[in-house]
From TrEMBL:
<dbReference type="InterPro" id="IPR001611">
    <property type="entry name" value="Leu-rich_rpt"/>
</dbReference>
<dbReference type="Pfam" id="PF13306">
    <property type="entry name" value="LRR_5"/>
</dbReference>
<dbReference type="InterPro" id="IPR036383">
    <property type="entry name" value="TSP1_rpt_sf"/>
</dbReference>
<dbReference type="Pfam" id="PF00090">
    <property type="entry name" value="TSP_1"/>
</dbReference>
<dbReference type="InterPro" id="IPR000372">
    <property type="entry name" value="LRRNT"/>
</dbReference>
<dbReference type="InterPro" id="IPR050467">
    <property type="entry name" value="LRFN"/>
</dbReference>
<dbReference type="Pfam" id="PF01462">
    <property type="entry name" value="LRRNT"/>
</dbReference>
<dbReference type="InterPro" id="IPR032675">
    <property type="entry name" value="LRR_dom_sf"/>
</dbReference>
<dbReference type="Pfam" id="PF13855">
    <property type="entry name" value="LRR_8"/>
</dbReference>
<keyword id="KW-0677">Repeat</keyword>
<feature type="signal peptide">
    <location>
        <begin position="1"/>
        <end position="19"/>
    </location>
</feature>
<keyword id="KW-0325">Glycoprotein</keyword>
<keyword id="KW-0433">Leucine-rich repeat</keyword>
<dbReference type="InterPro" id="IPR000884">
    <property type="entry name" value="TSP1_rpt"/>
</dbReference>
<feature type="domain" description="LRRNT">
    <location>
        <begin position="23"/>
        <end position="59"/>
    </location>
</feature>
<dbReference type="InterPro" id="IPR003591">
    <property type="entry name" value="Leu-rich_rpt_typical-subtyp"/>
</dbReference>
<keyword id="KW-1015">Disulfide bond</keyword>
Length: 332
């Protein structure tokens, strides 16, 4: 009986909005459900964004349909829209200016929704949404180069980039993202997460980097950066080195060794072949500054080099004798 009482108490706290849901009265939305200012058109076989969406709409959910194209006027007249979800569609084209009317939009979900091989136009359209605080681009075929288009979305708080082909992240990409507290990069192609993609200190609370081929010893700057972040930052992920996989939170970088390549020393001062005038000098250098270690590469190039040397002008008698040697007679 006690358990039943608890269950009844929990049910009483459920949102009442769903009890007020009803079919939308707008003919174009007859298959959709309207809850106050929210419109839900999920899994009803739509091939395009419905027309005549009320201009007071604050949330529009179009998940699980077969929408292939977002036209420039698809969201015209929706200045109050704060949340837009396009999950699990088949979007192959987004016209220029498609999101220009969404001045109030703060949350956008387009995960698992694109079928285009080059999603640049999707990201280009998103760059106009400078008020976004939440963005989900899971499985949108985004590459490392495409990712740079997000650098202007400084208001983001929650960013999900899972299941994309991101092999590296450009240094400084997240500089100035002062509100970003949740970043998920699960199952990409990253081999390293470097501290240089962030500011020196952040307000990150969650960093998810599971299911990536991360190499622990290539991330030493990240491990140095980590202690300067919030003490309750949750990092979820693993990295690989020394033939084992390690929880990234406990990896000890003191076990890492790094190849040191050979470096040339400075050239020695050459000894000139003449005592005056122009001659030839030979200079030397050594390959030990530092010497190689831990399979570092050896120097490339020559240990010696011949160069021209120019000393003070020779006295007049020397110049005359030189003239005789070259021309057979001297000047009187």
């Amino acid at each position: 009986m006690a358990n039943i009482g608890i269950l009844i108490a929990m049910v009483s706290f459920l949102p009442t909005a769903y009890g007020q849901s009803q079919r939308c009265t707008v003919p174009e939305l007859s298959q959709c459900v309207c809850i106050k200012t929210e419109v839900y058109c999920e899994d009803i076989g739509l091939t395009e964004v419905p027309r005549n969406i009320p201009n007071t709409t604050t949330a529009l959910v179009l998940d699980g349909n077969a929408i292939t194209k977002i036209e420039s006027a698809s969201f015209f007249g929706l200045p109050s829209l704060e949340k837009l979800s396009l999950r699990d569609n088949k979007i192959s084209s987004i016209e220029t200016g498609a999101f220009d009317w969404l001045w109030s939009l703060t949350a956008l979900f387009v995960d698992h929704s694109t079928e285009i091989d080059v999603p640049t136009e999707v990201l280009t359209a998103i760059t106009t949404l400078t008020n976004l605080t939440r963005l989900d681009l899971t499985n949108c075929r985004i590459s490392s180069e495409d990712l740079n288009l997000l650098s202007g979305l400084k208001s983001l708080q929650h960013l999900t980039l899972d299941n994309n082909d991101i092999s590296y992240i450009k240094p400084g990409l997240f500089n100035g993202f002062l509100s970003l507290y949740h970043l998920s990069l699960r199952n990409t192609s990253l081999t390293a997460v470097s501290a240089n993609i962030f500011d020196a200190t952040t307000i990150l609370k969650v960093l998810i980097i599971f299911d990536n081929p991360l190499m622990c010893c290539t991330m030493t700057d990240y491990f140095e950066w980590l202690p300067n972040q919030l003490p309750y930052l949750v990092v979820a992920g693993t990295c690989h080195d020394f033939n084992r996989t390690t929880d990234i939170r406990i990896f000890n970088t003191s076990h890492c060794t790094f190849p040191v390549d050979d470096q040339w020393s400075s050239w020695s001062t050459p000894t000139c072949s003449v005592t005056c005038g122009i001659g030839t000098g030979l200079r030397n250098r050594s390959c030990d500054s530092p010497p190689p270690s831990d399979n570092g590469k050896e120097c490339i190039g020559s240990y010696t080099e011949a160069i021209n040397c120019s000393l003070i002008a020779c006295p007049e008698p020397y110049r005359r004798r030189g003239c005789k040697r070259r021309h057979g007679r001297g000047r009187k």
